[in-house]
Structures are given as structure tokens and as C-alpha cells.
Write a structure and sequence with these properties.
One of its GO terms (cellular component) is cytosol. Belongs to the AHA1 family. The chain is α+β, with helices and mostly antiparallel strands. It has helices at residues 18-28, 114-123, 126-142; strands spanning 13-16, 31-34, 40-57, 60-76, 83-93, 103-107. A hairpin with a 5-residue loop joins strand 2 and strand 3.
Length: 145
């Protein structure tokens, strides 16, 4: 009787992709980039927690993920004090538009001038992180094994 229970995957089959997704996110979210001619940012994925899985229902594949990411960054500009901080993205889930994810930039104690700290917060924005997450999502959609 059990062999007839899920004929043609009509109900669902689920596969965990967390072993691929978590290191892939860490890899993509650890980088160095020039923001301007003189300003460089170094980002490290300090903590990436969550899960990614795909399920097949009625012969259609659905991708799902739910992550919390903490990134550390260092903003370097010649002649200026180093500015360090963190970026928290929580939750990073499949059922919301990326632009709606919770996003928090915190600056650690810095000797930099207030205008430089404000500039740092403006430079450390979704524009440098979301394209990397989009690469992850594109690769994840194609991943089947």
C-alpha cells in the first residue's frame, strides 16, 4: 500500500540544500570592493544561519530559504580613520521582496569625524550587497542536486 501513497510525487518531496547554500552565501558575501576611487570596503560574512530547501509538489519545483546574515565591514580611505561596522540582514526569506528585508548598519566605535561616519553609512548600502544575493538566488534556482 505504501508504494501507492505518493504516485508521481503528487503530494510532495523535499530536499535540503543548506549544505550548499550556507557556504555559498558566505563565499559571495565575503569580498573587497572599491566604492569610489579612494574608498574601499572589505566585507566578511561573520555569521550566516538558516536553511534552504526545495520541494516538489504536483511535479513543480519550489525553492525556499530562510536566513539571518551578519556581515562585518571595514571602510578604508587614505588619510582617514578606519571605519568598522556590521550589517544585519534579518530575515532573508523567499516570501518577501529583497528590498523589504530588514536591514541594519551599525558603526563600531570610531575616531572618524561625524560626516565620515554618515558617509560610511550611506556607502554601505543594499546596492553593494543585494547584487551578490541575487547571484546566490540565480544559482540556487538552477541547483537541482
Amino acid at each position: 500500500m505504501t508504494e501507492h501513497h505518493n504516485i508521481g510525487n503528487w503530494h510532495w518531496t523535499e530536499r535540503d540544500f543548506s549544505d550548499w547554500a550556507t557556504p555559498k552565501l558566505k563565499e559571495l558575501l565575503t569580498f573587497t570592493q572599491n566604492l569610489t576611487e579612494s574608498v574601499e570596503i572589505e566585507v566578511t560574512a561573520a555569521d550566516v544561519k538558516g536553511e534552504a530547501f526545495k520541494y516538489i509538489r504536483k511535479n513543480k519545483v519550489h525553492s525556499s530559504y530562510d536566513y539571518k546574515c551578519k556581515l562585518e565591514f571595514k571602510l578604508k580611505e587614505p588619510g582617514c580613520d578606519l571605519i568598522e561596522g556590521s550589517i544585519h540582514i534579518e530575515p532573508f526569506v523567499d516570501d518577501e521582496n529583497m528590498e523589504e528585508w530588514e536591514w541594519e548598519v551599525k558603526i563600531k566605535k570610531s575616531n572618524a569625524a561625524a560626516d565620515k561616519i554618515k558617509q560610511a553609512k550611506d556607502l554601505v548600502n543594499k546596492g553593494i550587497i543585494l547584487p551578490r544575493i541575487q547571484v546566490f538566488l540565480d544559482e540556487y534556482e538552477k541547483k537541482m542536486d
